[in-house]
Amino acid sequence: MHLTHPARTLGRLLVSVVGATALVAAPASAAPAQNWGRPQLPPASGWAPVPGDAGARSGPAATVYGGDLHLFARGAGDAVRVDRYNLTTDTWSGWATVPGTAGARSAPAATIYGGDLHLFTQGTGGTVRTNRYNASTNTWAGWTTVPGTAGATSA
């Protein structure tokens, strides 16, 4: 599965978790419509499983950061699992556990802010747990609880 896309097209990468298997659809390019001037998205080129066993217990979260697609899912033991797809080399890093005790009770959520990747999940008792990854140093800051009780039912 080669995921590059030519210049002047719109690419998309679809990620889905079915049971414990994560699947990725290769990107599809978009061309301007003849009459409406809006992009028409052809069907994706097909689904392919993300290599390895995610052990997923939730739906995925995905974000692009540091030139890689980061794919997250809640795993066994309330851990958060991560696999990185390198957009340049067309390779996956392999599933690993985000270091530390996540205490995840929900699917993770990921966003980029202030130059770092921020990961969130619901913890016990309605708390929200967070961890921060820095691509420059290739380090995780460690899981912490966001102060207060959000009464969260999902992250």
UniProtKB/TrEMBL annotation:
Protein source organism: Micromonospora carbonacea
Name of the protein: Galactose oxidase
Record's keyword terms, sorted: Signal
Region (Disordered): 29-56
Key word Signal present: yes
Residues spanning the signal sequence: 1-30
Presence of keyword Zinc: no
